[in-house]
Structure formats: structure tokens, C-alpha cells
Amino acid sequence: MSSDRQPVEDPGAAAAPPPSGGAFLLAQLGAHAAGRFGERVGELGLAPPDVGLLRMIALEPGRSQRSLAADLGVVPSRVVALIDSLEKKGFVERRRSAEDRRHHELYVSEDGRRALGRVREVAALHEDDLFAALDEEDRVRLTALLGRIAEQQGLTPGVHPGYRQLPKRPN
Amino acid sequence: MSSDRQPVEDPGAAAAPPPSGGAFLLAQLGAHAAGRFGERVGELGLAPPDVGLLRMIALEPGRSQRSLAADLGVVPSRVVALIDSLEKKGFVERRRSAEDRRHHELYVSEDGRRALGRVREVAALHEDDLFAALDEEDRVRLTALLGRIAEQQGLTPGVHPGYRQLPKRPN
DNA sequence: TATTGTTATACTCTATAACTATA
DNA sequence: TATAGTTATAGAGTATAACAATA
Question: According to the UniProt record, where is the region Disordered (chains A, B) (predicted)?
């Protein structure tokens, strides 16, 4: 470190205290959690968005790409790419609907089901590592507090906001 | 409990329960918080990374791009682009160092300082909205719990992990 | 020769718009 | 004409590598 970095009387400190509020902590920890989870499922050959999609399809087999796009708040062409990747890995199948041949019904394959099983294990490990600082009681308290916020903020359970595009501002 | 359950098929429900753990909630809420904050500061003409940079420079005026890159965990060329944008907006100044003419010393301009003031206001509003579901006591509890996790996880105070690149997995 | 900052380039993510097949 | 999915294309973000100035 440059030992003599101006004997400043720090005019900035007053103007820009480090963000210490709970909102920043929440964003910081959330990004950290998402990043660590991504690394772990990456070792299973899955990207984080893959995991969410896979789960949604497993939960409601046969659903269409359109409905996924709507639930995720994402444009249909994006789902094409996402499903392409999942299909190439052999985790989901597209089947042309018999009733309306415009639709693709989506199904999780046997491999996909196995992958989801491993994801579940990894998620448990992840949570345990992430909350290592807290005992069981505090974990319950924290989850309850977060749950109340999520509900009040109107978040869709199980849907990570990372899918949908942020409104872009001119730079 | 299930006295006479219909022979439901739904093989997926058992295989893929919606993620309900605290880790997912944390990631979900963190992304939500970051997104909302981004919208708000966007109205001030700042992107979220701008805010962090501006704060770091204000806190330690005269620091170099190299040192910022190290603290953020990003490559130096990225800092070039980030500072370019901030300089173009008139929020920071690059000054060629007299002692070592390879360095650019970074300073927050008067406009930048004003912007930081507005950011502080916006951040307070943001936090208040985000935690609307909680009373003051619960907010303190939550922040304490998050702080313990952040410390145990080794997060650098005030540095959002969103700056640094996630290790990419082959897809 | 090593270091700071910069430019050139490429790759990923994600959107918009145009297009095909089906209804 | 309207809808599901796809392809083509563009823009933002971010990295790697080569480079110029300075030490």
C-alpha cells in the first residue's frame, strides 16, 4: 500500500460514508449467495437460470415456452435459447403438442430429474455454508423476516428477478 | 394425513419443490433490492457501478485506477471504461500524478459530490420502502443477522460482488 | 524490465424485429 | 388475422491481449 496517500483530512468521509444500511447488505449478500450457488451448480453442468427453468418444468410438466416466458417476465426468444441449452444437455425434451401443433410441450428427462436431485443436495450444502454464522434458531428468524419482506414487496415465490431485463437508462 | 388422496400423477412435484430455503430468499431479495436501487439512481443519471466507484473515490481521494481494480476484483481495463463514463458525466476528474506520471489520481468533482448527496437521500428512501414490512426493531434484528453472515462469509464491507466476474463454466 | 493506463478485440447475455408454421 | 416458436441482429457488459508512456 502506498504508505503516504495524502495526509488527507478526508473530505470524502463525510460526503460518502460506506453504505452500511440493511438494504445494501441485503443486495451484497444476495449477490454473494447467487454467485456461490452458481459456482456449485456449475460443477453439475448447469447455469443458474437452467436450475430455475428445470424446476418450473418439473413442477408443471408439459407447459409451453410461452407460459414460462410470462412467468419469468422474459421475452419468448430468450426461452428458446435457454431451452436449447437444456435440451442439448439432455435435461429437457420438447414434444410437439398433438392438439395444437404450434406448441412445444416441455418435459424433464430422466437425466434432468437426476440433475435436479443433485441440485437439491447442493442447495442444502449451500444454505448450510451460507448461514454458518447462525444457529438454527437464528436461521428460522432470518428466513421469517426475509419472507415477510418478500411478500410485502410482491415477489413471486420461487422466481429469481435475475431473469427479467432491468429497464435501461441512457448513459 | 392423506386419507384418500387422488392418484395424482404429478411426478414432478415430488422431484422439484419450489426453492423455499433462506438462501434462495436471500438471493431473490438481494436481486430485487439491487434492481430497485438501480432504477432509483438511474433517475439521477448514475448506473449502480457508478455509485460504488464514486463512493470509493470520495472516501479516498487521489487513489489510482489500479487500486480500484484490485479492491473491486476486476481487471484494470474495466475501470478505464467505468471512469470514462463517470468523467464524461462530469462526476470525477483524472489528474496526472506529478510524482509518478504513469498514475492518474482520481477525484470526485463538485457535481459528483452533489450527486452523492442525492444518492444518499435515494438510498434512505429505498431502504425504507424495502423494509416496509418490518418495524424498527425487526429492521435492526435483520441487519444484525445479515451483518453476522457477511462477516463470516468474508465479504468486503461496501463492495458489491456484482463487479467481479463470475468464473465461467463451459456450457 | 516492470508498471499504469489504454485500445483492440471477442464473447456472453439479453432484447427487438422479422419470419415460419399453425390455427 | 393471431399465436407459438424461431432466427437474425444489435447493444451492453466484461474479459484477454497487445501496446504506449513512464519508471
Answer: 1-21
